[in-house]
Amino acid sequence: MRREKFIEAYVEALSNDTAGLFVGAGVSISAGYPSWKTLVQELAEEIGLDVDQETDLPGVVQYFLNRAGKKRTSLAKLITKEIGTEKPIPDILHTLARLPLKHVWTTNYDELLERAWREQRLLMEVNTDKQHLVLNNPAAHAQLYKMHGTVKNPADVVIAKGDYEGYRRERGEFLNLLHSHLVSRRMLFLGFSFTDPNLAQLFTLIREAFGDTPPEHYAVVKRPQRRDFAGRGSKERFEYAERRHKLWVEDLENYGIHCVEVDGWSELDELMKAVEHRLASSSVMVSGSYPEELPSGGTEGRKRTEAVARGIGEMLARDRYRIVSGFGLVVGSAILSGALEELYRDTTPNLERHLFLRPFPQMIPEGQERQEFYRRYREDLVRQAGSCIFIGGVKIEEGRTVAAAGVISEYEMLKTLGRTPIPIGATGGAAQEIWAAVNADYAAFFGRMPRRAFDVLNDVDATSKQIVDAVGEILKWIKEKGI
Question: What are the beta bridge partners of residue 22?
């Protein structure tokens, strides 16, 4: 499957809240945790087996447990020793945690996923047994289904042949829920080998039910690499691996699983960052404010700012962008008014999908330091969008108008996060200062984009319609060029 087609399809699923994620052992291995073969090696040696000659690793663990009289003490100690230590979180998991994923599945025992979501200040509820499945926390940002158990309870993980054979009896509720997700969601498989016997059975059931029109899912898989084959007969073994890989990818298509092939796992993070960027580009933040009354009157300045903001809101809604706003004075209400005028042309408008409004609270939560609270609040807003339109950003201080420091700080956050600023300098205040800063380093922000539309943003003689049209041109350029 072409990468561009995958990005487009998965972004659509994320936007429609129909995306799912399944994380396999490959992601944990990239963080420094042992592969299944490495984990089992010590057990195999203890019972006189060579793990390199074994293909049934759950069987090896079962043989070990048989020798131990079914006692899992040594096995639990091994899992705690090898997986209980925290490893650095791979960048790919930070990227995934920033995506609006509500349902995440894994066969891994470690806690990389929980930690990645926590570092993004997101609550991920962890489900490790069937009792958890009926006690979902509605306040959680995401649900994590650890269908093979967790390192926190190493004696109860699914690892031996008997565990797999008894899975439907002991944890069948996980399979039922996963089956429903495989039917209703577009699942992305990362670092997963598709050798799990329980999942193989689920895919067979889905194939039987849907025939030639199975639900669509995606997997990122690594092609065999010549450098991984050394020694005598390496060329023949590599060519054989290539042939088998192609046949395997073709077979996955029969189950509705479209494969995106990479040459190295480093490409995985680039791919998911492209998904994040494309998703963010469909949302536009509007930052700015304007005093309701200026010391010297300033009625015309306010009217102009309102007209521009209202036109921007209407244009963003018409072009189906999601509008992100902290609802600054004058600007926020004008943006909302313009957007609603357009959205209510539809007899059944989906306001939640097109508006992400988070007015700044005037009362700070108890126990929070004001500046740190506002910093976090602004950063959470800025992260929601791929670009930000700055309008005004004017406030009154000691009887005179000055640039709003909060709007300037949002611009600084935006730069750090790699988002694109669209400052309407003609509305004055912080927007004018930001326009000057962007103008001084224009190519870094917009590359080869023609300057005409950007220059209109700072033209005090331009009409509100001309400014709105110029913003529309810039947004179109950003989307087409993937800035």
Answer: 105, 189
Q: What is the pTM of this model?
A: 0.84
Distance (Å, whole) CA 339 – CA 343: 6
Q: What is the pLDDT of residues 106-128, one digit of tens each?
A: 999 999 999 999 998 889 999 99
* 283-481, CATH topology level: Rossmann fold (3.40.50)
Categorize the per-residue pLDDT at 198 as very low, low, confident or very high, splitting at 50, 70 and 90. Answer: confident
Q: What angle do CA 311, 315, 319 make, to 5 degrees?
A: 175
Instruction: Identify any residues that bridge with 19 across adjacent strands, giving them in sequence order.
Output: 186
Residue intervals of the chain classified under CATH 3.40.50.450 are 283-481
Is 3-33+87-278 CATH 3.40.50.1220? Answer: yes
Q: How far is CA 13 from CA 5, 18, 28, 427, in A?
A: 12, 5, 25, 37
**Residue ranges of the chain assigned to CATH 3.40.50.1220:** 3-33+87-278
Which amino acid, one-letter code, is at 16?
Answer: N
Rg of the chain, C-alpha, whole Å: 27
Q: pLDDT (tens digit, 9 = 90+) per residue, 346-397?
A: 888 888 889 988 888 777 777 788 888 888 888 888 888 999 999 999 988 8
